[in-house]
Write a structure and sequence with these properties.
single chain; Arc Repressor Mutant, subunit A; Alpha-D-Glucose-1,6-Bisphosphate, Chain A, domain 4; 11-stranded mixed sheet; 9-stranded antiparallel sheet; 28 strands; globular; MEKHLA; START-like_dom_sf; lipid binding; DNA-binding
Length: about 850
């Protein structure tokens, strides 16, 4: 790199150097000068003018160099560093593209073999059908049997003689057969693989994801690239509980070394049930780890059954034994570092043992792909990025600690949903209605684990953990959309008194068991503080601060904020088969790494649609009801009719509370009532976010107190005219409700409605009102009337409230209010009036802010 350098020698040379510098010529720096500049660059790549002058004064060897030349040196140095990083990045991308190209070529070869196989099979079937009519004897049964046997060659289920359980040679034979069958699935055509929707290969994608088509059980396959070495990848994948959230335990009961440097392991694994409506599964498998001649590592696994031979597994009365067909991982080293991974998961979950409505959970290869196959690949990529230092985390905690928090939240929620007897859970009697299940655990230390400090959660009086849980089927509600709403709008379903009770249990301080109120008032807001997220943002770990809204025994507001550690996953609507989950647990403000966690939350699992029709596009505001013309309505009706059964899902709710022995019955009654309240809130939210006009298709009626938009528009307009004698909307007297709604929605003044409660919250606003408040119709329900008015506005409203209730309306003078973002909004005048329903009883209050503008 060309640099200006101080000359050596007498005055003549120095004069020439000065002349050269003035002329803008460049010479080389001496090694001593470069070393001095590099030291400064390592501390400050872009020094200020004063810092450069200070450098010249402090370094005698730089004394005869002008500050301008020093500035040029640093510019060039930064440019060279940038070029070096860019070259390194391009080399990395090139390696990825080369490896991905190799992967795609292999995939193309595999697909060509599959096409050839199908062409041959098609020709064989044609020949059989052509020969059948001319046969002199009835060979139809033989033909069908023969073709059926040929078709099922793709999914062989060989029968083996019973092998000696104590004979390592017999187990090695099973292992070698498992290896051959696994490789035929990973790189061959043993299974008809279909690429999963939305999963496209590329240098930055997770990989090539495919699911099974017409095979026994369910299967998923993934191919991807990671920057870790094969041995490290193998170590991570074998530690299944660290990345497979449904794995309850994995015990290696026997290890047998093999002659080729590998080993055979006999493994017993238990998995959680995804919902309270089904039983958990367990597996008894043989796992074979070995190396191939090309340097690849293979970890393959299959269940040991009477048909395969091998020793019998341990009995488990509360589990249903599932079967793992030949599955595993092929890990191949890449040139220049990193690994190419092939993952195959192929299992039979005995779907016939669950109710028919739940069978799609056990028959969907997409759900298997999301839970196991993609989860494994994502976990490896996450660790690879963490190892390289490319991910920064907040809160001053290491990535491994944050991953442990996520695992503990997920595991604690799974424990609550399943309630295993060996964890100490037992069922309580019901109150006559079987909608909510109550389970108690009087051995919480066993459940929380010895590494967790739970001494602060239970007083000396003795107590335990109580869990209230329920499951329900949802129709036409996208799981991702529902969980995202529950995360962002906690006030729609949570009860602050219950939150305060849960927070008080962390400090083992006395707190009366709250009664669940009919209106879940949320007097404070929630602030989401992000802690970590996965590289594809499919999972978030965050701290939720609930701002001073708890209640004590006298229903007085507590000023102390409360905190929740929250895990949210599956909120991407485009992720096919993904489970959406929101799990949270109360924590202290400065929670330790071993802080006890008592998770509660929601899980929504999609059921495979009965048709493959695309879902209708929707909005969460009134814009979807304002399309002009009957064509839009007809189109929407047909779309909704075709999608009525496309969006079925199972919702599971579980809430955990601590209790003292003498208050167990009171806590159980509170928990049962609270879960029923949450279920009702979720049902209300589900109806709100479901596609519009669905109710008319399936004969649903709007619940009392929640009129549809057209009815509310008519009530608002009619009440305004009744109280003031003036038309609010200039509509034709023969105009229908559609026209009234459109006029109200597009009215230039901000019109909004709020509930008639002690703390009024907004329930509706037109487009101008939403713009003024800087919110949406869904988030509008989190805003109270008191929040948007300033002190003078509240005083005026209080003084005019009696008059408004007596004569039905009141004019309010010009003033200032605040948007949901805290921006001041001025208005010239406001009108408030009572909205009357069909029976002329009070439904809500309406406000109209005229000529408003942001200050």
């Amino acid at each position: 790199m060309a640099m200006v350098v101080a000359g050596q020698g007498g005055g003549k040379e120095a004069g020439k150097l000065q002349q050269g510098m003035d002329a803008g010529k460049y010479v080389r720096y001496t090694p001593e000068q470069v070393e001095a500049l590099e030291r400064v660059y390592s501390e400050c790549p872009k020094p200020s003018s004063m810092r450069r002058q200070q450098l010249i004064r402090e370094c005698p060897i730089l004394a005869n160099i002008e500050p301008k030349q020093i500035k040029v040196w640093f510019q060039n140095r930064r440019c060279r560093e940038k070029q070096r990083k860019e070259a390194s990045r391009l080399q990395t991308v090139n390696r990825k593209l080369t490896a991905m190209n190799k992967l795609l070529m292999e995939e193309n070869d595999r697909l060509q073999k599959q096409v050839s196989h199908l062409v041959y099979e098609n020709g064989y079937m044609r020949q059989q059908l052509h020969n059948a009519p001319v046969a002199t004897t009835d060979t139809s049964c033989e033909s069908v049997v023969t073709s059926g046997q040929h078709h099922h060659q793709q999914n062989p289920t060989p029968q083996h003689p019973q092998r000696d359980a104590n004979n390592p040679a017999g187990l090695l034979a099973i292992a070698e057969e498992t290896l051959a069958e696994f490789l035929s699935k990973a790189t061959g055509t043993a299974v008809d693989w279909v690429q999963m929707v939305g999963m496209k290969p590329g240098p930055d994608s997770i990989g090539i994801i495919a699911v099974s088509h017409n095979c026994s059980g369910v299967a998923a396959r993934a191919c991807g690239l990671v920057s870790l070495e094969p041995t490290k990848v193998a170590e991570i994948l074998k530690d299944r509980p660290s990345w497979y959230r449904d794995c309850r335990c994995l015990d290696v009961l026997t290890v047998i070394p093999t002659g080729n440097g590998g080993n055979i392991e006999l493994i017993y694994m238990q998995t959680y049930a995804p919902t309270t409506l089904a039983s958990a599964r367990d597996f008894w498998t043989l796992r074979y780890t070995t190396g191939l001649e090309d340097g690849s590592l293979v970890i393959c696994e299959r269940s040991l059954t009477p048909s395969t031979g091998g020793p019998a597994g341990p009995p488990a009365p509360n589990f249903i034994r599932a079967e793992m067909l030949p599955s595993g991982y092929l890990i191949r080293p890449c040139e220049g570092g990193g690994s190419m991974i092939h993952i195959v998961d192929h299992i039979d979950l005995d779907a016939w043992s669950v109710p028919e409505v739940l069978r799609p959970l056990y028959e969907s290869p997409k759900i298997l792909a999301q839970k196991m196959t993609i989860a494994a690949l994502r976990h490896i990529r996450q660790i690879a990025l963490e190892t390289s230092g490319e991910i920064s985390y907040g809160g001053g905690r290491q990535p491994a600690v944050l991953r442990t928090f996520s695992q503990r939240l997920s595991r604690g929620f799974n424990d609550a949903v399943n309630g295993f007897v060996d964890d100490g859970w037992s069922l309580m009697g019901s109150d006559g209605v079987e909608d909510v299940t109550i389970a108690i655990n009087s051995s919480p230390n066993k459940l929380l684990g010895s590494h967790v400090n739970s001494s602060t959660m239970f007083s000396a009086m003795g107590g335990g953990i109580l869990c209230a849980k329920a499951s329900m089927l949802l129709q036409n509600v996208p799981p991702a959309l529902l969980v995202r709403f529950l995360r962002e709008h906690r006030s729609e379903w949570a009860d602050c008194g219950v939150d305060a009770y849960s927070a008080a249990s962390l400090r083992a301080c006395p707190y009366a068991v709250p009664g669940v109120r009919a209106s879940s008032g949320f007097l404070g807001g929630q602030v989401i503080l992000p802690l970590a997220h996965t590289i594809e943002h499919e999972e978030f770990l965050e701290v939720i601060r609930l701002e001073g809204h708890g209640f004590n025994q006298e229903e007085a507001v507590l000023s102390r904020d409360m905190y929740l550690l929250q895990l949210c996953s599956g909120v991407d609507e485009n992720a096919v088969g993904a489970c959406a989950q929101l799990v949270f647990a109360p924590i202290d403000e400065s929670f330790a790494d071993d802080a006890p966690l008592l998770p509660s939350g929601f899980r929504v699992i999609p059921l495979d649609p009965k048709t493959d029709a695309p879902t209708a596009n929707r909005t969460l505001d009134l814009a979807s009801t304002l399309e002009v013309g009957s064509g839009a309505a007809a189109r929407s009706s047909s779309e909704n009719a075709s999608n009525t059964y496309n969006l079925r899902s199972v919702l599971t709710i579980a809430f955990q509370f601590t209790y003292e022995n003498h208050l167990r019955e009171s806590v159980a009654a509170m928990a049962r009532q609270y879960v029923r309240s949450v279920v009702a809130s979720v049902q209300r939210v589900a109806m709100a976010i479901a596609p519009s006009r669905l109710g008319s298709q399936i004969g649903m009626k709007h619940p009392p107190g929640s009129p549809e938009a057209h009815t509310l528009a008519r009530w608002i307009s009619r009440s305004y005219r009744f109280h003031t004698g003036v038309d609010l909307l200039r509509a034709d007297s023969q105009a229908g409700s559609d026209s009234l709604l459109k006029l109200l929605w597009h009215h230039s003044d901000a019109i909004m409605c709020c509930s008639l409660k002690s703390s009024p919250v907004f329930t509706f606003a037109n487009q101008a009102g939403l713009d003024m408040l800087e919110t949406t119709l869904i988030a509008l329900q989190d805003i109270t009337l008191e929040k948007i008015l300033d002190d003078s506005g509240r005083k005026v409203l209080c003084s005019e409230f009696t008059k408004m209730m007596q004569q039905g309306f009141a004019y309010l003078p010009a003033g200032i209010c605040l948007s949901s973002m805290g921006r001041p909004v001025s208005y010239e005048q406001a009108v408030a009036w009572k909205v009357l329903n069909e029976e002329d009883s009070h439904h809500c209050l309406a406000f109209m802010f005229m000529n408003w503008s942001f200050v």
